[in-house]
Specification:
Aspartate Aminotransferase, domain 2; ArAA_b-elim_lyase/Thr_aldolase; single chain; 14 helices; globular; Aspartate Aminotransferase, domain 1; signal; Aromatic amino acid beta-eliminating lyase/threonine aldolase domain-containing protein; 2 domains; L-allo-threonine aldolase activity; 4-stranded antiparallel sheet; alpha/beta
C-alpha cells in the first residue's frame, strides 16, 4: 500500500480553512490508517501468529525470522528485537562492562548523555568519559581517532561508543579510516567497540560501496532503530555474537522489555525495512533522499533573502538530514512559520528549539536550531515549493526585525 506523500491540515488562526502542507519526512497517517496498513502487511507476508515473550525458545516464528534476517544482512551471528534504543544500548553497555571497568567513552553529544536522564549512572552504575572534539564551524567535529587516542590514553574503559552518523551534529560522519583505526585500538586494549547506529541505514550513503555488513564489521555490537529513517512505529535491534545476544535476551527480561507480544512494533519495523531499505514498491533510496536535501539546501544558501537568516550544519549534508541555525528567536521563527504557512500553504520546517540548550557551546548569534530530514514523503515536494515557503518565512523574519 502506498503512503500519501504528505498530510493536509488547516492553518491555525487563519480566517479560512486553507490547506496546509506539513513538510514531514514520513506520511502522517491516523492510527486507524496506520493499523490498517499493518493488517494488510500481515496478510501479504503470512504473519499469522503472535510472538510470545520474545519467542526466546523458538527459531521458527516471524519475530525470530526477522531477527535472523537483520543479523544476516549486517553480518552478525544473532540479533535481538527490543522496544527501544535506550534499552538496547543500556543492555549492550551492561554486557560489555561485566568483569571490566565500569566506565565507557562516547562523544560529548551522545544520546546517552543528553536525552536519557543519566540512566548510565543512576540505572547502570557506570561512569563515562566524554570525548570532546574541536569546533570547526557551528557544531563540533565528529569523533575521530586522534581524539580517541589522546583522550583515552592511560584510561581504562569497557566500551567505546561511536555514533554513525552523529545526530546532534547534523548528521556528520566519522571517516572510515578513523573507524578502522578505532577498531584496531579497541582490539589492542581489549575494549568493546559499540555502534550507535540509530541512523545506520541513512549513514550508508556517506560510505559509497560499503554494505551494511561492511559498516557493522568493525563493531562488537550494533544498535539499529526502526522508527527514524525506516518509519516504523517504534523498536530497535541489538546485534552481535551468539553469546552476546543470548546474554542480551536475559537482560531484556530483567528490563521488562520482552513484552507479552512485540508484534505491532515488529510488523511496523519489517514494513519500514522492506519499503525504505529494500525499496519495495519503488521507494526512493537514501542516496536519492540525500541528493534531494543537498539540492534544496544549495538553493536556499544561494537565495538572496533566505541566506540572510540561516546557516546549515554541516554546510553540505552528508546524509539525508541536516541542522539549520537561525539568527532569530524561537518566538520570531514561530510567527514567521505561521505567516509563511498562511501565505503559501506550506511550513518551511516543523520543530524548532532554542540554540542555547544545545549539548555544546553555540555562538550567541545563533538563537534557534531545527533538524531537517528528507524522507519518502517530503521528497515528493517540488524544489520550487521549498524555496517559496522559505522565502516567505525569511521575508517575515527580516520584516519583524526591521519593525523593532
Amino acid at each position: 500500500m502506498l503512503l500519501a506523500p504528505f498530510f493536509m491540515a488547516s492553518v491555525v488562526g487563519s480566517t479560512t480553512a486553507k490547506p496546509l502542507l506539513l513538510q514531514s519526512p514520513h506520511a502522517v497517517l491516523s492510527p486507524a490508517a496506520t493499523f490498517r496498513q499493518s493488517a494488510d502487511f500481515c496478510e501479504a507476508n503470512d504473519v499469522n501468529e503472535f510472538d510470545v515473550y520474545g519467542d526466546f525458545s523458538s527459531h521458527e516464528t516471524y519475530l525470530r525470522r526477522f531477527e535472523q534476517k537483520l543479523a544476516l544482512e549486517l553480518g552478525k551471528e544473532d540479533a535481538v528485537f527490543m522496544p527501544s534504543g535506550v534499552m538496547a544500548q543500556s543492555i549492550a553497555l551492561l554486557i560489555h562492562s561485566q568483569q571490566k571497568p565500569k566506565r565507557f567513552a562516547c562523544h560529548a553529544s551522545s544520546h546517552l548523555l543528553i536525552h536519557e536522564n543519566d540512566a548510565y549512572r543512576d540505572l547502570l552504575n557506570l561512569e563515562v568519559i566524554r570525548l570532546e572534539t574541536v569546533t570547526t564551524s557551528i557544531a563540533p567535529a565528529p569523533l575521530d581517532f586522534a581524539t580517541v587516542e589522546t583522550q583515552l590514553k592511560n584510561k581504562a574503559i569497557s566500551t567505546l561508543i561511536l555514533e554513525i552518523p552523529h545526530r546532534e551534529l547534523g548528521g556528520k560522519t566519522t571517516s572510515w579510516l578513523d573507524v578502522e583505526r578505532m577498531r584496531d585500538f579497541c582490539r589492542i586494549h581489549q575494549i568493546a567497540f559499540h555502534c550507535d547506529g540509530a541512523r545506520l541505514f541513512e549513514a550508508s550513503v556517506a560510505f559509497p560501496g560499503q554494505s551494511l555488513s561492511d559498516l557493522a564489521e568493525p563493531f562488537d555490537s550494533v544498535y539499529l532503530s526502526f522508527y527514524k529513517g525506516l518509519a516504523g512505529l517504534s523498536g530497535a535491534m541489538l546485534l552481535g555474537s551468539s553469546e552476546f545476544c543470548q546474554e542480551a535476551r536475559i537482560w531484556l527480561r530483567r528490563f521488562g522489555g520482552n513484552l507479552y507480544t512485540l508484534l505491532p512494533y515488529v510488523v511496523a519495523a519489517d514494513a519500514g525495512y522492506q519499503k525504505n531499505w529494500l525499496r519495495k514498491n519503488g521507494a526512493l533510496s537514501f542516496l536519492q533522499k540525500k541528493e534531494k536535501l543537498c539540492n534544496v539546501v544549495q538553493l536556499l544558501k544561494e537565495h538572496p533573502i533566505v541566506s540572510q537568516v540561516i546557516r546549515f550544519e554541516p554546510e553540505e549534508p552528508q546524509v539525508n538530514m541536516v541542522h539549520g541555525y537561525l539568527f532569530y528567536s524561537v518566538e520570531e521563527c514561530q510567527t514567521a512559520l505561521d505567516h509563511a504557512a498562511a501565505k503559501v500553504g506550506m511550513r518551511a520546517f516543523h520543530r524548532i528549539r532554542n540554540a542555547s540548550v544545545s549539548p555544546f557551546p553555540v555562538d550567541l548569534k545563533y538563537q534557534s536550531v531545527f533538524e531537517w530530514s528528507m524522507g519518502e514523503a517530503n521528497a515528493q515536494i517540488e524544489d520550487k515549493d521549498f524555496v517559496q515557503a522559505w522565502e516567505a518565512f525569511a521575508s517575515k523574519l527580516l520584516e519583524l526585525r526591521q519593525s523593532r
